[in-house]
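Subject: Predicted fold for DUF2231 domain-containing protein, 142 residues

User T.R. writes:
Posting the sequence so we have a shared reference for the thread.
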Amino acid sequence: MTTTTATPHVYPNVLSPLHATLLCGQVPLFLGALMADIAYYRSYQIQWSNFASWLIAGALVFAGLAMLFALVGLFRRRNPRPLTYFLLLLVTWVLGFINALEHAKDAWAVMPMGLALSVIVTLLAIAATWVGMAQPRTGDAR
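User M.O. replies:
I've generated the structure tokens; pasting them so everyone works from the same file.
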């Protein structure tokens, strides 16, 4: 008598829970910095610029750690999607760092470049999260 056991389906492109948390955690931080920049642009209350600086710093920590996970994933897989994902995270982090340097200036000197960089970095973070969390479709079409 022979018994067969079904082997569990392995999902090679599924992110670990820590990686997914770091990746998704950057989006609300960059988005919060964008909203703080918009509030500063409309009110010129200097504290909004300070809030944006701290939110950007936190987002850079999350994005940097997610980028480390993506770098490891780049060497483990052979398909081209991890390269796109890693490059999106790298560009997001570099422009986020430039945005942090822009926000380190005097509060009156932050606008309008700080706001423009916040918009670009937020969109890049959303795109990186979208690409990182997207799973390739497998199976037959119905």
